[in-house]
Amino acid sequence: MKPITFIHTADLHLGSPLKSIGDVSETLQSKLHNATFDALCRIIDAALSNDVDFVLFSGDVYDLESRSIRASRVLAEELSRLKEADIPAYIIAGNHDPLSRNSGHVVELPDNVHVFDTEAETVEFIKDGDLAARILGQSYRSSSDSRKMYSHFTAPDTSVWNIGMLHTALDPKNNNYVPCNIDDLKSKSDIHYWALGHIHDRRILHKENPVIAYPGIPQGRDTGETGEKGCFLVELLPNQQPKLTLVPTASILWDVRKLNINIGDGEPPKTLNELKRLFRTEIEKLRSGDSEDSVAGRIIRWHLTGKGDIHEKLVENRSEASEDITETLRREFGELDPFIWTESVHIRTGKPVPPLDELAGQSELFGDIQSVMEEMKTDKELTEFDDILGEIWETDGDYEDPDYEKFIMDEETLQTMISEAGQRIVESLLERRNNS
Ligand SMILES: [Mn+2]
């Protein structure tokens, strides 16, 4: 087998707006508007600078079935850059950009591009005159597709790399997005690499024989799509483990960050001004890192945590306090380069009560509370509760809809809820004790 390298990307959702984040300036609005196109440009840059053999787009290149003219034009332009370097591109259509009757390309794509048909197809990739890989793929014909596409992906032999392109939720019960599970894909022993699309988190589900991977969305669009985003640079070498390297592509990063008012050695902030100073220090730290990383900016949802006297002042006028902090931070950092845009500030502080450990030593009641809390944190049934709810919130509704407010019940959220409940109980017991 010949060694091959390629880029695997998916779910570009070109032209899709980033979620509305409040009253932004025109400059910032245009940065948000260009972000998905910037990501495409970075993907093509990575293909060219690594001199890859080809580029795979595993569905949802466009956000909408009625493709925008700008998205079509930019895609054609970017793919032409690959053509100049003699690099082919392979595209399957997903649930957002199915190949139905209305979906002809407004702008013709260059001839180095193969868009897979709605029936399974196999395309050969020739390198230096020899067959080096086969790409097997199939496009959605409408916005949902219940066909078991993978079962029609059959390669004549395994003498060259066989790569399957599939847009799927990888959920056997989900008939909208190509029902299947990981074992179905593993059972296709003629496929070496499953280039998946649809799920916006980056996941490597199986490392070899076959590789099964989602590169995730190249540019996050809301606070449910936080952190670094990118595409995979894939190297397949004979008799070696496949190598997948993340190439960062997002110019704008979404972030949900905790700011603990008890950080540092000093006293926690007592006034709003002191609290804002704490935010400023934190933001400057982030900005200095971002300026080295070609990040245009970050959109942050803050969770203010910790214990201190300022808590009571903050919760007295909770929404006014968080709006005031938000406004100040937007004004100071929202227009800088790199920018930090504060999406919102969630006040989750508590009263300055002694640690539960200490209280537990003083009275039996607090000792009991502590052991109940410990039990809850490791309770098997609660962990299962988190599994069940997590699943409901992750799959209910269209999670690709940027306006869909995600609330994913995961282990960390559950632990936070337990700790916060404990804090409330301790606060009110102490209050009662002080008042009696
Ligand atoms: Mn999709």
What can you see in these coordinates?
By secondary structure, the protein is α/β, with parallel strands linked by helices. It has three domains: 245 residues, Purple Acid Phosphatase, chain A, domain 2, CATH 3.60.21.10; 102 residues; 72 residues, no CATH class. The protein has ten helices and 15 strands. It has a six-stranded mixed β-sheet. A hairpin with a 6-residue loop joins strand 11 and strand 12. Helix 8 runs antiparallel to helix 10. About 3% of the residues have low confidence. It binds manganese (II) ion.
Amino- and carboxy-terminal Cα gap: 81 Å
Strand order of the largest sheet: 4-3-2-1-11-12
CATH superfamily of the largest domain: Metallo-dependent phosphatases
Can you tell me the overall shape?
globular
Which blocks of ≥5 consecutive residues have pLDDT under 50?
395-405
What is the oligomer described by this structure? single chain
Per DSSP, what share of the residues sits in E-state strands of 2 or more residues?
Answer: 15-25%
Task: Give the name of the CATH architecture of the largest domain.
Answer: 4-Layer Sandwich
* Arithmetic mean of pLDDT: 90
**CATH first level of the largest domain: which class?**
Alpha Beta
Q: Number of helical runs? A: 10
